[in-house]
Amino acid sequence: MSGSKYQSFIESSTINGANAPYIEAYYEQFLENPESVDPVWRAYFRGVQGADGYADVPHSPVIERFEKLAREPRLVVAAESGFDAQAAEKQAGVLRLINYYRVRGHQAARLDPLGLAPPQNVPDLDPAFHGLTAADIDTVFNTGTLAAADRLPLKDIIRILKSVYTDTIGAEYMYITETAQKRWIQKRLETVAFQPKIATERKREVLKQLVAAEGIERYLHNKYVGQKRFSLEGGDALIPAMDEVLHACAERDVEEVVIGMAHRGRLNVLINVLGKSPKDLFAEFEGKYSADSLSRAGDVKYHMGFSTDVEVAGKRLHLVLAFNPSHLEIVNPVVEGSVKARQTRRLDEAGQRVVPVLIHGDAAFAGQGVVMETLQLSQSKGYATGGTVHIIVNNQIGFTTPNPIEATPNHEVRTSRYCTDLAKMLEAPVFHVNGDDPEAVVFVTRLAMDFRNEFHKDVIIDICCYRRWGHNEADEPSVTSPVMYEVVKKQTTTMQLYAARLEQEGTVSKEDAEALVRAYRDGLDRGENTARNTLGLVGNKYTVNWGNYLKGEWDTPTDTSVSRDMLSTLNTKLQTLPEGFTLHPRVQKIYEDRAKMSAGDLPMDWGFAETMAYATLANEGFNVRLSGQDVRRGTFFHRHATVHDYKNGTRYTPLRHLSTEKYRFVVHDTLLSEVGVLGFEYGYSTTDPDSLVIWEAQFGDFANGAQVLFDQFISSGFAKWGRLCGLVVFLPHGFEGQGPEHSSARLERYLQLCAENNQQVCVPSTPAQMFHMLRRQMKRSARLPLIVMTPKSLLRHPLSVSTLEDLTKGQFQPVIQEVEKLDAKKVTRIVFCSGKVYFDLAQAREKQKLDNVALVRIEQLYPFPREGYEAALKQFPKATEVLWCQEEPENQGAWYQIKHRLSVYLQPQQKLMYSTRKGAATTAVGYLKVHQKQQEEVVNEALTGGKLV
Fold first, then answer.
1. What local confidence, expressed as pLDDT, does residue 818 receive?
2. How far apart are CA 515 and CA 912, in angstroms?
3. For position 19, what pLDDT does the model report?
């Protein structure tokens, strides 16, 4: 700044290497409140900032300037500065001390109630580390940005810092780059040093919650000896934490809270948070179930979900606990999807009316990838839910391996210091808290809820506690963790510790506490819930009656045709782009072709038929939600649901403009995630039956990464939990010589999961089939998951096309018989197949001039279309050879899952044969020539040879 109007100020100031840290801290203070610094310094700092006024800037350039100035040989002390170099260094040390407590105080906090992970000795928190001595303890210093008086003695500053940052709360937030969020947390935490954390009446409520938390566990422990319940004992503070969540929601007029958690403490939460009847829980322990429950496969009690309405602080809240299998964190994206659907119904874009709460185990949170995928979704377009409150019940032991609050290098359970470190990628604040300090737990829970409300971001509460029993109540934990469990055996319960604390301060008497224990136990004896009474399922205008979808049958004939005029009208609207919008030349050609298809001048391709399915459904009042890693354009350049201006990159989605309803059609390109996104879409689909929800894998084999969702939710959710779901999954499938990774969608895996009409597996071979299949999914009254083997090369195959009449008069055909005029008396062989191989068979048959072979496509492999199959057999009464042909190896594809269905309806004179690639350990070969040779062999064998079953 040589020659500037500040030159004389610089030359007469004490800017040097000794006190540059103080000036940096002074600059921080200026950023928060410019009026709080000296006018001369204020003018200087504004000059440092430049013309942008008070906007925060990276401090590194500022620090570099200070260091540069410090190297100049001008060390003239200004008479008006009021301090010397030594005083400046002391002041800088105080400000550094404050900063280090904020950054590293959590390492010295008393977090472990067992005392097995004692607070660390952090050198940075020692005043001597910053040049401060006992002689400075009564010296008054500027407190900088500390939420306290502007000037305080050092001893008071240290007392505040220890109280806030190294007591039973360890706050991690200084990695957050948004200054406003850091300042907000600092103010909320540091101001607490001067006031009680919770009010007296709330303390009594917290004690009551702890009595309930401990009471239900002891009651079950004594009444149902040895039965699994996955006790919460040791993590009892979760119950008052959840109660605080509900109170915070009620105060903000939240309407629904959706909770996801694994089985640890689940029964406790069901009883004491959601208000499930103890009588119903006891019946489950005793094996007494309703007739409706016995009509399904069912599930163990600590996997079951629950929903009800409760009254909290005079407000009605709808509470939902999501069903969850033993795959722990897999419920995370499912909850988020369900929340998103509920928010969409309310047009609740900010997430103010529906709040997600996820309760985790420490080992699972750190170890399972679905946690990261769900966190990564939290701020992405189409998936944000206004911030999730995460509560970790950190009992320091995953299964049998001790899992300390602060992991050491090379520990078995994780690499990161804390189980929560994953959250730092979101810059989500983390509040570690000692579970044996219930007031601190309640305080940080309210803090977390307020943060979520203020900034619409995820926030983490890490309740550091312990597990009193083993992984389940039949387990003996001291076998693998003898040291820990020797301490646990002697540990006084959280309720007893807190009751003694309140008794000592005079808030409650010993008799009061004992009365609460008796009252809760007596209520359980009567089968009554004294912790929380529910209102039952009251419902509101957003409630969905899923009973309407239990009555429908999957095979009910459904009219899915659409008039020609309607198709033309809708396509005209879709072709209308904003004025001046320039399409890419290749996309322009696609649009021109679609105009011809709409007029009947060109056969329809897959992209047109699929778009028309969405358009007609949206026009009829259904919502459509399509997601995947490249679904706007389509992995194979066929969809173009969103188009881009070729000149300026502006995006436009024509299907969104068919209706004024905001969410009538939405399409989202997602992050590179399978399990996270599919779980989200499953949760969305189970919450909104009137939305066609589709997830498309970039290639079919990518769904491997989400196999848990297919196994535990999509295929079995209704059998276990009675949860209906209309989710559609697109899995591109077909053998084109692209190698083992992008040929097979593993059709056999989905067929293996089929039973009891639980889901549909379809392989459409024409655009019209795709059109009618998607419309049928929404037009009929049943809701079943739909797994679709979608095409790749077929998208542009000259034979795989349809006409307008196929849409205006047709419907989905589970079985497509021959369209050629074959002489039925000449047909001796019927070849059944699915998908792309049909066209290879048809071309080869024509080339070889075979008139004795009929080709029949089975487009719906499950539920198996028995009537259509029998009709095809009867069409050719002279046929003695019935053959199944598939591109996939013998041990894959549909063959092993379908051969028994093919054989059961054969006539005595008919024999069943098959043609496949030979069994293989991989899905396909990696060499194009080998692939082509194999394909030719499969096709020729199907037409003229075949292997006998």
1. 84
2. 76
3. 57
The total number of residues written for the chain in this structure: 949
Q: Which residues contact 78 (CB under 8 A, 6 or more apart)?
A: 12, 13, 14
Domain end marker among 759, 781, 808? 808
Is the same domain home to 283 and 379? yes
Considering the domain architecture, whether residues 601 and 471 belong to the same structural domain is answered as no
Q: Which amino acid is at 533?
A: N
For residue 422, give the nearest of 348, 360, 484, 486 by alpha carbon. Answer: 360
* Alpha carbons 742 and 700: distance in angstroms, whole number: 7
In whole angstroms, what is the distance from residue 886 CA to residue 916 CA? 5
Q: Which tokens sit at 209?
A: 């919650």
Rounded CA gap, 765 and 812, in Å? Answer: 11
Is the domain of 916 the same as that of 825?
yes
Same domain, 793 and 871: no
CB-based contact 513:506 (threshold 8 Å): no
740 in Cβ contact with 922 (< 8 Å): yes
Contacts of 131 (CB under 8 A, 6+ apart): 89, 90, 93
pLDDT for 703 equals 95
The per-residue pLDDT for 48 is 60
Q: Is there a single domain that holds both residue 772 and residue 821?
A: no
Strands in 795-878 per DSSP E:
815-816, 829-833, 853-858, 860-862
Q: Label each residue of 537-602 as H, E or C.
A: CCCCCCCCCHHHHCCCCCCCCCCCCCCHHHHHHHHHHHHCCCCCCCCCHHHHHHHHHHHHHHHCCC
Do 598 and 530 sit in the same domain of this protein? no
Which residue type sits at 175?
Y
Count of domains for the chain: 4
Which residues are CB-contacts of 20 (< 8 A; sequence separation ≥ 6)?
A: 63, 66, 67, 70, 92
* Domain shared by 803 and 824, yes or no: no
Question: Residue with structure tokens 């170890």?
Answer: 367
Could you tell me the end-to-end alpha-carbon distance of the chain, in angstroms, rounded to an integer? 90
User: For residues 385 and 403, what is the distance between their CA atoms, to the nearest angstrom?
Assistant: 31
- Find the Cα–Cα–Cα–Cα dihedral 83, 88, 91, 93, rounded to 10°: -170
What is the residue-wise DSSP string for 306-326? Answer: EEEEEEETTEEEEEEE----S
- What's residue 661's pLDDT? 86
Give CA–CA dist 13/74, Å, rounded. 9
For residue 760, the cross-strand partners are: 786
Rounded distance between C-alpha atoms, residue 103 and residue 94, angstroms: 14
Give the model's pLDDT for residue 408: 65
**Residue 845 token pair:** 């048959």
Range of the domain at 593: 564-808
Query: Please, are residues 765 and 836 in contact by the beta-carbon 8 Å criterion?
Result: yes
**10-residue stretch averages of pLDDT, the chain, 949 residues long:** 42 50 69 73 66 46 50 36 74 95 96 90 95 96 93 96 96 96 96 80 96 95 86 96 97 96 92 93 80 63 82 94 91 97 95 97 94 96 96 91 71 86 96 97 97 97 95 86 92 97 95 96 92 86 85 81 96 95 96 94 96 97 96 94 95 93 92 96 96 96 94 94 94 94 95 95 98 96 95 94 93 89 92 97 96 97 96 94 97 96 92 97 94 96 95
Q: Determine the pLDDT at residue 407.
A: 67
Residues 340 and 409 in one domain: yes
Does residue 153 lie within any of the structural domains? no
* Separation between Cα atoms, residue 760 and residue 752, nearest integer Å: 12
Question: Which among 117, 134, 138, 116 has a CA at the least distance from the CA of 126?
Answer: 134
Closest by Cα among 451, 453, 54, 13 to 250: 453
Burial of 123 (0-12, 13-18, 19+ CB in 10 A): exposed
**Is 95 domain-assigned?**
yes
Count the Cβ atoms, other than its own, within 10 Å of residue 29.
Answer: 20
